[in-house]
Amino acid sequence: MTDEPKLSSDAGLPLKPFYGPEDGSQRGPEALGKPGEFPFTRGLHATAYNKTPWMMQQVLGAGLAEQTREIMDQLVAEGMEGYFGHKVFNVVLDNPSKGGIDPDWAEAKGHVGVGGMSLSHLDDMRRLVSGFPLEATNFSIITGDTCLVALAMFVVAAEKAGYAPEQLRGNSMNWLLKSFCVDNPDFSPRGAQKMAAQLIRYCTDRMPAWNTTNFSGYLIREAGANAVQELAFTIAWGTAVIEECLQQGLDIDAFAPRLGFQIAFHNDFFEEVAKLRALRRMWATLVRDRFGATNPKSMQARVHVHTAGDTLLFQQPQNNIVRVALQTLGAVLAGVQSIHTCAYTESVEIPTPDQSRLALRTQQIVLHETNVAQVADPLGGSWYLESLTDQVEEAAQALIEEIERKGGFVAAIESGWVKGQLIDELIKKHDQIDSGELVRVGLNRYETEEAAESRPARFTMPPEIEQEAIRRITEWRRDRDQSAVESALEAVRAEAAKDGYLMPLVLDAVRAKATQGEIMNALKDVYGWGFVTN
Amino acid sequence: MPRESLAGEVTRGHPLHTPEPSGESEHVRVVLGKKRFDAHDVGARYIMRKLVDAGMEVVFIRFALIGELVDAAVQEDAEVIGLSVLTGGHLVLAADLMEALREAGLDDRLVVIGGVIADEDHAKLHSLGVDGVFGPGSKPDAIVAFINDRFARAS
Q1: Fewest C-beta atoms under 10 Å: which of A37, A407, A414, B14?
Q2: Which domain range does residue A342 map to?
Q3: Which positions ≥6 away from A525 have C-beta within 8 Å?
């Protein structure tokens, strides 16, 4: 007699060797619904991708605005498109810009334009967006804690090009409340929660077509979470932001339709599909039943999938092409609205044009050659998948209830509990990789000696980027009315100190030519931990 | 307007997750640093755990400026200074680190850099005076062994 192997999902949920009619969803037909109907388990649209494909939202950005525009032009020429053929750009900033550190400050040294575009003042933003028809272009800018300031720079750059905020389309990350998971928060959890709602408040007033928030399970996943934790923490994060918006006097149906998600598609294929289906069901139920939304659009979890960077390996990098193709297919089968497919070299750095093209082609091949996009929720009804969707939901719900018992998500961050959960999980997972229990092909199984010269080409950038960024911001500071800057920053500080209405004053500070770092420091003075670095 | 950064202290506010040394080997003192804005800390956290399991004392800080890492090394009288890098900039960081260590009189300390570091940068880092360079997929045991080789004390 042999022991039956213990089967489990990546997150540790128990599995059976096969499923039958007695399995499937135990939750009844109303928990599934039809595609396009509450609770949206089976997707947001009954028409699948027939009206428009998902947005091919490849992350891009490097150097200054000029280098970034070159990459944008290349990907547009390669067929990167958003809904109904509109241009869509997902611009990532470099670390200093994400952190509100201007390029001429000591902390930025060596990092300007590395891994993303340097953006520190209004002129950078104008160089990035000039010439695009902004009423028909979708701009996402991947910021860190700088989202209020980056949005203000976008709005003012558009204003100078003749556009009103009401006309603008795109997405703020609004990731303020995620900093707990990456261990370098600029703002206290409570301050971050308030500021996240401030951004939503302004957009609800003035930017009806702007997607205000991208609850990023992806970042939580990359920081160590498993699928269940990713789902639970993302929904808890969303709950905390909604509560603060309501506290600030917003109506749920006025802002909830513009909330969105960024979720990882990781290696465990069915668990990831189950996670995305469970997310839609849980979010719809939460927003309707707990927060009293009546507009169906408020209940719809719109999802951008980022194929999972932490599954990509340095060893045998071409294997990553296969990994991201499977993940991209999974995201489409799960019915998501937008996808970034990682380039196979993203385990090291940003891709070359050839490597970017291949990542985009991966999505285009899935769309045009596999015929999987015509039918909504094609995996729905699988006994296994429906059972697993229930399992993922139940495990995540239990974790959410644990967070509630700890006083909610912000309190659970403040106590260190959330970070502790991530650390415990990452150590468990990496111990499994280290021991070979969790197979990573090319790393701990089927290893080969690789010659250095067989490594993929590396993205290269002009070496003078950092000096040029410093030159530009130095001139920018020199040619402005310094007293106007000081008083605008003081106004931001004063408004923050009374928890007033921030965005109009941040916009004024941008118009007065304050830099991103300067405005961030004013905000850190009030909502920060009591330290700034310049 | 220079102001003081307390980033290191903030990170140290998670003492629960710095387990007590439990291994047999001697308490080699390690200060492990990672730049404040360098994304997530998965690799650094895992290596920290492996070093602690091997009996080392580890202080982990997220720093804004390299001087904070060196100050921590001085305060802890660190024998090993570790730098974790996820999103690039390591050549500049390493050059600044080595210079700051020399100025602080710590140029005899073991310097180890790990993270997302392309092969062709290893030689450049060594030429700056970095002792150990561990790229993506390095075995944690190899890092522990590298440090232990240097500090093999008679017990």
Answers
A1: A407
A2: 174-446
A3: A493, A496, A532
